[in-house]
Design goal:
about 300 residues; D-Maltodextrin-Binding Protein, domain 2; 2 domains; 5-stranded mixed β-sheet; 4-stranded mixed β-sheet; 10 helices; globular
C-alpha cells in the first residue's frame, strides 16, 4: 500500500501561497502544435550576454533558436497570460536557458501524450513540460533534473466524494492527463508496474478505480467541476494553483503521493545540446536566477538547487 505523507498538504500548498502573484490567467489551449515567440518575462527580457556555451552545429533545428515543447495550459508551470503569451516557471526556465546559450526561445505548444515523439521527430529541440523522470522515458530521451513535485488529488469544494486516503479512491471516478505518471500510478504501468492504485483496490476487494483520461489539463479540470469525475489526479503545483484560481469550486483532498524529480528532455543523440543545457541550468542555479523564477510562481519548494545528484 502506498504511504501517505505525514504532512500531505505541505507541498501542494506551497504552490498556493504565491501563485496568486503569478502573472496573467490561463487562456484556452489549442490542440495543435504552434510555435510562439517567448513572452516578455523578467528572465527573457534581460540584456544579452556572451553565451556560456555554444551548441554544436547541426544540433538545433533552426540556427539561433531553441524550440521548446511544452503542454499548455498546465499552470503554474506553463500557461498563457491575458494576451495569449506563454508564461510559467517552466517557460521562464526555458527562456533563461536559451538566453544564456545566446539563443531565442520559441515555445511549441504540444500534446503531453506525444511530447517525446515531438522532440524525437524534429518538432522541437528540447521538452520542458513538468515531465516526471521515469525509466520508460529515460529509455527514449536524456532527462536533466530541474524540478520536483508530488502527485495529489484535486476535488470539488468540501470534498463530496470523501477522498482522504488511498483506499478512498477505490470505486471512484478519477481523472488524469494522458501520458502522465498519474495514469501509470493508477493502472500499475510504467515505473509502477505490479504496483498501482487499482491493484491496491483489488487486493483489499474494493471496487476498481474508474480512470478517465484527458488530453489537456483544462479538460480534466472541467470534468471535475462538472461532476463527471470525483477527483483529478495531478501534480501538486498545478493542483495548488487551481485551488487559488477557483477556490469556490475546488479543494485539495489532503492526499499526496510520491514526490519525484522532473526532467528536461533532450534527444539522446544531441550530446552537445544536452551539455549546453546542463551548463546553463547549473549557472542559473549557482547565481540564484533559478530559485528566483520558481519563487515568482510560488513553487520554490520544488527546487533541486540543494540536490547533490542534480
Amino acid at each position: 500500500m502506498f504511504t501517505r505523507r505525514l504532512a500531505p498538504l505541505t507541498f501542494a500548498l506551497i504552490a498556493v501561497v504565491a501563485a496568486c502573484a503569478a502573472p496573467g490567467a490561463a487562456a484556452p489551449a489549442t490542440d495543435q502544435q504552434s510555435a510562439a515567440p517567448s513572452s516578455a518575462t523578467p528572465s527573457a527580457s534581460r540584456p544579452a550576454a556572451p553565451p556560456i556555451e555554444t551548441v554544436p552545429a547541426g544540433e538545433l533545428l533552426f540556427e539561433g533558436s531553441l524550440l521548446i515543447c511544452s503542454d499548455l495550459p498546465y499552470p503554474p508551470q506553463e500557461f498563457f497570460d491575458a494576451q495569449g503569451n506563454p508564461i510559467g516557471s517552466d517557460i521562464e526556465i526555458g527562456q533563461e536557458i536559451a538566453r544564456r546559450l545566446g539563443l531565442q526561445a520559441r515555445i511549441v505548444n504540444s500534446m503531453f501524450d506525444t511530447i517525446i515523439d515531438a522532440v524525437l521527430g524534429g518538432k522541437c529541440d528540447i521538452v520542458i513540460s513538468a515531465q516526471n523522470i521515469t525509466a520508460e522515458r529515460e529509455a527514449r530521451v536524456t532527462m536533466i533534473p530541474y524540478f520536483k513535485a508530488g502527485q495529489t488529488f484535486l476535488v470539488q469544494q468540501d470534498n463530496p466524494a470523501a477522498i482522504h486516503t488511498e483506499l478512498d479512491l477505490c470505486a471512484k471516478r478519477i481523472a488524469a492527463q494522458s501520458g502522465t505518471v498519474e495514469v501509470d500510478f493508477v493502472q500499475g504501468t510504467g515505473d509502477y508496474r505490479d504496483l498501482g492504485l487499482s491493484r491496491m483496490c483489488r487486493q483489499v476487494k474494493k471496487g476498481k478505480i474508474e480512470l478517465h483520461e484527458f488530453d489537456k489539463d483544462d479538460e480534466a479540470l472541467e470534468a471535475l467541476i462538472n461532476g463527471d469525475v470525483d477527483a483529478y489526479f495531478v501534480d501538486s503545483p498545478a493542483a495548488g494553483y487551481h485551488v487559488i484560481q477557483r477556490s469556490a469550486e475546488l479543494d485539495l483532498s489532503g492526499l499526496t503521493l510520491d514526490i519525484a524529480p522532473q526532467g528536461i528532455s533532450v534527444p539522446p543523440d544531441k550530446t552537445g545540446l544536452e551539455r549546453a543545457v546542463r551548463s546553463a541550468l547549473d549557472a542559473m542555479i549557482s547565481d540564484g536566477t533559478y530559485v528566483g523564477i520558481l519563487a515568482r510562481y510560488g513553487v520554490e519548494d520544488g527546487s533541486v538547487a540543494q540536490d547533490i545528484d542534480r
